[in-house]
Amino acid sequence: MNGLSHGIGVADFETWASFGLIGGLGFVLGFAMNHGSICTFIATTELISQRRPARFLALAECAVWAAIAYIILDKLPTMNGGWSPLVHMVGAAILFGVGVYVNGACIFGSVGHFGNGEMDFGFTFLGILVILSLDSVFNLRAEPMPISASPPLALEALLVVLFVFLLLRLGISIKSETNFRRLTLAMGTIGITSATLSAFAPRFSVTTSVGSMLSIPVTSSLIFVCMFSGSLVSARIRRHQFSLSWPPTWKGVSRRTIGGLLMGFGALLIPGGNDTLLLVGLPMGAWQAFVAYLIMVAALAVLIARFGSTARSWS
């Protein structure tokens, strides 16, 4: 009897320790997203309006950091499903880019804006959840087997690539940027934390974990609550105050919801949002991830050039 009780006690401890680690990683991930003020929408806006590519280089660094972490952890980057045919992927990437524009932020940026007290960005994830919920009920897309692949470069080569990206960004930023260290720390943290989370929550990405709330409610909800908490704490430390934009305006709610719906549908067909492409697709060396991300950014760039953008970094 004592042995059975001891066994149950150990199992309970391991379970709670695992939850604690997952929650801690989720918190760090959200903190880094807000701390780095990183967003594909912001990066594209700076590239189009100011000819500043520094944040795009930082996003590339994030993918390299994730690939390095996968190798060190001896884990394969894994996606929930196979890539869609090219024609479908092109349309889905454009749709996702339109969704990012309507929403006013990508997946990373939505977490960061939420931390800044812009509560209407929570409706972005509600829109994504609606699409993924409909998919689980009506099987909008056939679910292929999960795919995995090891990073195409060895650890030594990845370290060289990372060094080159850092050097390039330092050269670009030295006269016009003051946040080189902040972005470097944030990108490394996001890449490493995301890869580490996938070791405890297989096939993890921010986008797919929204849908996982239906099938794995405890783990996915824990990650989301802790991630949003980390973003809120980061903003509180940076601003030395805590402020909320509440209640949100109907215009803001409708934009975030519609943007989330478009992003969710695009992510369903690619499959994966910009976070999955950067932190899973590119580390596994998938050309589909590169093409989808490039088309998404191109669609976003066309909209910004035509209609303008109010996106600005907050740190």
First-residue to last-residue Cα separation: 57 Å
Helix content: over 70%
Radius of gyration: 19 Å
Count of β-strands = 2
Element order: H for helix, E for strand: HHHEHHHEHHHHHHH
Unreliable residue stretches: none
Strand order of the largest sheet: 1-2
Strand content: under 5%
Structure notes:
This protein has one domain (2-307). The mean pLDDT is 87. It is mainly alpha-helical and 315 residues long. The chain is built from 13 helices and two strands; from the N terminus they run αααβαααβααααααα. It has a two-stranded antiparallel ribbon.
Provide key terms for this protein.
315 residues, 13 helices, two-stranded antiparallel sheet, mainly alpha
Per-chain topology:
Blueprint: H1 2-36, H2 40-50, H3 54-73, E1 78-79, H4 86-103, H5 107-115, H6 122-138, E2 147-148, H7 155-173, H8 180-200, H9 206-215, H10 217-239, H11 250-269, H12 274-281, H13 287-307
Antiparallel strand pairs: 1-2
Helix pairs in contact: 1-5, 1-8, 1-10, 2-3, 2-13, 3-7, 3-8, 4-11, 4-13, 5-10, 6-9, 6-11, 9-10, 12-13
Gist of the model:
This protein is mainly alpha-helical and 315 residues long. The chain has 13 helices and 2 strands; from the N terminus they run H-H-H-E-H-H-H-E-H-H-H-H-H-H-H.
